[in-house]
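Supplementary Methods S3. Input chains for the assembly prediction are listed below.
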Amino acid sequence: MPFIKNILSCRSLSIVGLEKNTGKTVCLNYVLRRLHELGVSTAVTSIGVDGEQTDSVYATAKPEVTLYDGMYLITSERHYLQRRCVSEILDLSNQRTALGRLLTARILSSGKALISGAAATAVLAQQIDHFKQQGIQLTVIDGALSRLSLASPTVTDSMILATGAAVSPNLQQLISKTRFVCRLIDLPEVEPTVRTALSQASSGLWAIDSDGLAHDLNIPSVFMLSSANSDLFRYGTTLFASGAVSDRLLKILAAKEEIKQITLIIRDFTKLFVTPEVYNDYVRRGGKLLALRKSHLAAVTLNPTSPHGYALDSHTATQALSDALNLPVYDVMKIESIS
Amino acid sequence: MLLRDKLHSDPGFQYIIDALNLISAAGRRALLDFPFLTTPEAVNAELDNLEAVIGVVSVTENLHAVSEIKHHLMCLHDSQGTVANLSQHSVINEVELFEVKNIAYTAAAVSRSAEPLGLKEIFSLPDLSDVFTLLDPDQTGLPHFYIYDSYHPDLPDIRKRLKQLQARTDDPEATTLYADLFAQHNDIQHSVEASLSQQLWASADRLALAVKRLAYIDLLFAKAGLATAWNFTRPQIAVNDSNSKFKIQNPKFTQYSALFNPRLLHRNQERHLRYQPIDIIVQPGLCLITGANMAGKTVLLKTLGIAQLLTQFGMYVPAESATVTLVDDVLFCIGDEQNEMNGLSSFASEIIKISEVVQLSASQRLLILIDEPARTTNPVEGKAIVQALSDILISRDSFSLITTHYSQLGVPCRRLRIAGFREDLATAALSPENINLFMDYSLVEDNSDTVPQEALRIATLLRCDPDLISQAEQHLISEIEG
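Predicted structure tokens for the full assembly:
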């Protein structure tokens, strides 16, 4: 009920957990239930393969996702065969994953299923487009912020972030970590002309000159960059890093005298593997960060219980996080019981 | 011998094969597994099919039906494993049953689209309507699949009860009951899968045939598309008088008019350079090809090899007209086989390859293409090797073409010279880029036993170092006088 109205104006939504055990699946189940009740035609898939039935790290029971009749599902063959719902296979793709090929099915009678999907952003984008064309109102993607995921949840229009005591049992730390990620999610998007200019830039470091043209700096990896690269700004101070960006690059840039003019463009917030300290330093010195693509953060949910058994006080935690983020925050465990 | 074995014989051949636009994975496999055809009947049967498809595709009214067929081919999944499972009498699961239903659906759909095009005979898809009916008990006519209620009397009730249990979300007991009931449901599903699988075992061969035929249809359309887009022609196959392919009473020949090399043609077009197609007749025995550098001798050999391969893999050829005599294999000895990693020098690999050619030619009819044999060793022995090679190949049943710069070989065989550099056409200063404009690539029968000596003339026109050239000319003069 709370944030579903926000979501309905989008055609695609990803639900992303900051860590494992932050209640992402509980959140996903809630969203799907509400969508079903509102009669919204829905398709569901996942980024990559993440389908252990019990969490292999903490051995906590991992609930599967409940799908309702009329919904569409894209998942892998092996997971499909383990479902506990009645459904009809509509299509089989040639996309292979570690769990077999991906298939599309329509749910005939509600039940649970394990969802695994394509690990490539381009494939996900295609799937979302395909569903749009079929007239499906909303595609929901079970996301992941894992470093191992090749696909980015920013392929969807909007996003729900799931956080919780699993991130840190200490409320202040939980708040600061979550707030940092939200700040990254919120990095502004580049102009469409810039996105077009960079569409061919698939690897390495690039620069955009004052005419808006992209130039390959021929630095295939940030590891080949040293503080001594004097011609880094030969095309200007607007740079694009197509891969992962770590503290190393931000530190090098922050140390440059041109720092106040530097704008670093990244693909999306999931490519930033930086610590808050280094990030803040870079920004404080005048450096700017933009993203090629961003998703709108529709809501934040909190799981007050950590897998170690520790529990935060629901009311205090959600209130404090909400104040810090300036966004409504929902206790995901309580949402489920709201009808 | 399959196409995949010859794919890397020459980059120009690979360029053509890569350009074939196959829609399905099965189609791509059919391409690579296509056999090298060695009888006129087999080649002509294949070319007849191709001609029929080309005829159909060139008619505008047929475009809709053709694109329907291609659309169906796109839905052909990679079902090798599933069909194999059925052949081995295994039980297949619902995803595999979906694949089987799809094969039946696609075969029927393509057949239906092919009928008004007059291609049904060529496509000859088996009738799988019984398979489709088995997997479509509710007569939806759709390629979707699940274990329908109709398959088992207990299913409708169990599913109804599951629905009711699912609705009781707050009841923990309901969850356990649901799990138990679903287990029963799955048992029934599995028994249905087993029963359906058993009923399908007898159809495994027909399903495999359907996939094979669909893959072949994909391949035919790809070949047709390429032949049309690149202006290829159907080669006429020269038929031997006697039945035995080793004892040819009246050996035929191979002839091309306006033969071109597509990779080179396209490259030249991109660079706005002219391209000159060639007319040539190739006879059994040996033909020596001479000509100045950059006169296209190597390209000629490669193109002849490509055209022969295309013919015997059932495709049209890049020429205005062609008559081709079939061979048992095409051997390319072109390019530097030097490979320091293998420990073989240029000469060593070359002479080994030439030796293999000589031995194979004793018992097979081949198309042998050798570019400048023995160029990597001293000219005295080199010439002797070329003479020996020529002696042998003259008397063989194969079509051999050797390019060489060696003069006065004293070998009684046919000679073709590439007309070469036309100084009278050179109106501007020469450069490596424009020299192509002044080359006449056509072939001239040459009865002399000498090779043209245009190297220094060309070097002069390219404004090479005058000292170098005058010194070379000095040496030439003393050689002749001395």
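The interface with chain A takes residues 25, 75, 77-78, 93-95, 98-99, 102, 144-146, 159, 162-163, 166, 178-179, 182, 185 of chain B (CB under 8 Å). Strands of chain B lie at 236-238, 254-259, 278-282, 285-290, 321-325, 329-333, 366-371, 399-403, 414-421, 439-445.
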